[in-house]
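Hi there,

I know you've been waiting on this one. I reran it after we fixed the sequence typo, so this is the corrected version. Both the input and the resulting structure follow.
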Amino acid sequence: MPTRRRKLQRLPTAQLTPEVAWSFEQCRKLQRQCTCKNPQDECKACKAWWQQQTIIHHALRLPPFAWPCLPDPNGPVSKGARQLFEELEHALFG
């Protein structure tokens, strides 16, 4: 009796690229430059932080439910976002 072969559906592995490293460094700098007094009114640093966050999210091929992928400086912190932040920090800065 013949068997039917199925193609393995593996998820692509995320790699730490120079683009991700640069964007992560920018996020760290932008967090220190934040001048927001009210979470509803975003400063220029926060708007740039969200742009860098988007670059990291797409480059790491994260699922949509993993948004935000890094801890939001003006909002609640998810466990997954905190873990990714710590992993990136350890990989880049030891």
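Quick highlight: The CA atoms of residues 18 and 24 lie 10 Å apart.

Best,
R. S.
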